[in-house]
Amino acid sequence: MIKGNKDHAALADIFNQDEARVDWHDETLWFVRAKRDKAANTLSEWEALRENAAQIKDNVLSNLHDYLSEFESNAQKNGLIVHWAADAAAHNQIVLSILKAKEISKMVKSKSMLTEECHLNEYLHQNGVEVIDTDLGERIVQLAEEPPSHIVLPCIHKKKEEIGELFHEHLGTPKGASDPKLLTAAARIHLREKFLTRRAAITGVNFAIAETGEFVVCTNEGNADMGAHLSEVHIACMGIEKIIPKRANLSVFLRLLARSATGQPITTYSSHFRTPRKGQEMHLILVDNGRTQQLGRADFRNSLKCIRCGACMNTCPVYRRSGGHSYHTAIAGPIGAILAPNLNMKQYADLPFASTLCGSCTNVCPVKINIHEQLYKWRQVIVKEGYADPKKTMAMKAMEFTLSHPSVYRNAGKTGRWLMKNMPFLVNNKLNAWYTQRDMPAVPQQSFSEWYKKNNNE
Amino acid sequence: MTVGLFIPCYIDQFYPNAAIATLKLLQKLGVKVSYPLQQTCCGQPMANSGFEHLTTGCNELFIDNFAAFDYIVSPSGSCVLHIKDHLHSDGQAEKASCIRKKVYELTEFLTDILKVEKLTARFPHKVGMHQSCHGQRGLMMSQMTELVAPPFSKPRQLLNMVKDLELVELSRPDECCGFGGTFCVAEEAVSVKMGKDRVADHLHHGAQYITAADMSCLMHMEGLLRRQNSQVKVLHIAEILNAEEV
C-alpha cells in the first residue's frame, strides 16, 4: 500500500500533476455529494435520524462487551460458528484454517473493508488461495492490481476507457470498447462462472443485531447474496463495532447509509443472514484489530461509530483533489485519517495533517462523528509522541517565544518582516511553497497597531 | 458596553485596512471600542499544527489583554473560533472560560448583539461572498449546505443592507478555499488547487470583488488572483460594510 515511503502531500502532489484529471475526480465525487444532499433533503427528519443513530452507537460503544456476548450466543443458537480474532493476523489465519479444513483453494469475496484492512487477499494468495472480488469496482481494481481508492466506490479514480483497456486485457472485450453497459455485461458473465464454481464465499457485515444473532449485508449488485447462497461455506467478517442492539434500530441505519453514501433511498439489497442453509457452514469472525485500543482513547472512541458510508470522502475538498491512494491506507479520506493513526501512529502521522479542518466531514457524517475535531486532536498526540518534523518543532518554538512577548513581536523587525518569515505559510522546510503558485501579500506602510497609536484618540 | 478589539496578527501586519474598517464600523454604530496594544496572536497557527502545548504564553497574554471587556470582537471567524474552542489557563481558568463565551466574530456581533438593521454603506459592485469554514461550520454564521435546516446567513444579512451591492450566487456556496494554516504550504498542491477552484467559481459568476469574514482565506485567494493577473479584488467584509463610496 505504501508507495515508496511518500507521504500524503507527496502523493497528492503527483496526483495534481494532471490538473484535468483532478477536475474530473473532483466533479465526479462532488456529483455524489450533491446526490447525497438531495436525498437528505427529502427527509425533514434527517437531523433527528443522525442524532438517533449517533445515540444508538453511543449506547453500543458503552456496552460493547454485553452486546457482543449476546450476539455471539444468539448467533450460535442460530447455527453459526463464531470466531474471535484479536488482530489482522489472527483473522487471516482463521479464514485460511476454515478453507483448509474443507480443502478449498478458490473462493469469491464480496466487498469488505475489514478484509482490506487485514490485507486478507495478499495473505490468502501467499498461501495458495485464489480470491475473486465480486463487487464490480473491487474486481476492477483487483485486475489493475491496485487497492480500492474509496470504501464505497473502489474504482472511482478510474475512467471508463481505462476500465475498457483492463477488460480487454483480462476479459477479452473488444479493444477500445468503453461503453459501461457492455463492460458490465462482460463482468457479469465473467463473475457468474466464479459464483457457480466457487465453494466458499466471504462477505462483510454492515450490521450485526445482538437481539437476534443475525447480520445484515448491504450491496447494490447482489454479489454478496450470489456468493453466499451458492457456497457451501460462507465466512462473514466483521469489526466488533458493527453491532447494534435490536432489529428495531436497523431502520435508522438503513435509511441513513445509502442516502449518505450515494444518495439512494436504500441499497438495492439489504440481506439478512440468520441461519445456514441445510448443508452449508456459516462462520462469523469478530475482529478487534485495534478497535478496543481506540475505544480506550477518550478523544477518539466515537470514530468507532462509523458505518462506512464514505460521505466524508465525497465531501472532503482534499480527498476530491488528492485521490484515495494518497492516503496510503485501506480506508482513505477524513475517517481513514482518524482511524489509521490508532493502528500505526508513525506510519500514518501525516494523515491528520491532510486536512484544512473545514468541518464538512463532520456535518455529513450520518452518525455524527466529530471527524475534524479528532483530526485536530490527533495532531496534538502525534506531535507529543515525537512524530513531528524537528525543523517544524524548532520553528514553532521560535514562534511561541515571539508571540508570547509583545515587545519582541513589535520589535521583531519592520512591519511584516517577522511574519513573512514566521507565519504558517513559511514555517516549513519548503521555504517557497507559498510563492510557487501564489503572490505574497503586499506589505503596507504601517501596521494597524502603528496606525492606531497615531490616529485613535481614546 | 465596552468592547475589546482583537486584531489577528496577520491582519495587523498585512491588512491594516480591514482592522481600521472594523474599528470605524463599530464606532459608527456607537460602540466604545478599545484596542489593547499588548496583543499578539491567538495561538492558532501553533495549535493547528499540533503544538497546542506551546500556546500557554499566547493564552495568558490574551487573557491579560481582554478579560476586562464586556465583549471581545474580531474580524476573523477563524481566530475567534480558536479562542472559543481552545483558550485555557491553569492559573486563570475562570477568566478563560468567561472570555470563551464573550468573544465574537464581527458580523455575528453586529447581527446578534448589536442587532443592526441598517447601514449607511454603499458599494456598487458585484460581490462574491466566500464562507470561511471556521466561521461557517465552527461559529455557524450561515446555514451549512450539508445540514437539513432552514436557510440563514449573518454576513449576507448585513451585505443586503449595503446600497447598490449585488451578491453573486456560487456553484459551491461553502466549499473550503484550501488555506488551512500550515496546510497551505505543507500540502501546497492541494491547497493551491482548492484555491484556484474557489476563485474560478467567483469569477465564473461575475464577481468583481471577493469578500469574506476571514482575511486568511482572502490572502490565499488574493495570492492566486494576483498571480493570474486578475482584476478581481479581495476585500474584508468590514471594508464593504463600512464603505463610503458615493
Please describe the topology of this protein.
The complex is a heterodimer of chains A (458) and B (246).
Chain A: H1 8-15, H2 19-41, H3 46-62, H4 64-77, E1 81-85, H5 88-101, E2 106-109, H6 113-117, H7 120-126, E3 130-133, H8 136-143, H9 160-171, H10 180-197, E4 200-203, E5 207-209, E6 214-219, H11 223-230, E7 233-239, E8 243-244, H12 247-261, E9 269-273, E10 281-287, H13 291-295, H14 311-315, H15 317-320, H16 333-343, H17 360-364, H18 371-384, H19 390-404, H20 406-411, H21 417-422, H22 448-455
Chain B: E1 2-5, H1 9-14, H2 16-28, E2 32-34, H3 44-51, H4 56-66, E3 71-74, H5 77-86, H6 93-102, E4 103-105, H7 106-113, E5 126-130, H8 133-138, H9 154-159, E6 166-168, H10 183-186, H11 188-204, E7 209-212, H12 215-227, E8 233-236, H13 237-241
Parallel strand pairs in B: 1-2, 1-3, 3-4, 5-6, 5-7, 7-8
**Main β-sheet description of chain B:** 4 strands, parallel
Number of strands of chain B: 8
Shape of chain A: globular
Shape of chain B: globular
User: Measured on Cα atoms, how large is the radius of gyration of chain B?
Assistant: 17 Å
Distance between the termini of chain A: 63 Å
| Domain module tally of chain B | 2
Largest interface, by Cβ-Cβ below 8 angstroms: which chains and how many residues each? Answer: A-B, 85 and 78 residues
CATH class descriptor of one domain in chain A: Alpha Beta
Instruction: State the helix count of chain A.
Output: 22
Could you tell me how far the N terminus lies from the C terminus of chain B, measured between alpha carbons in angstroms? 32 Å
Helix content of chain B: 40-55%
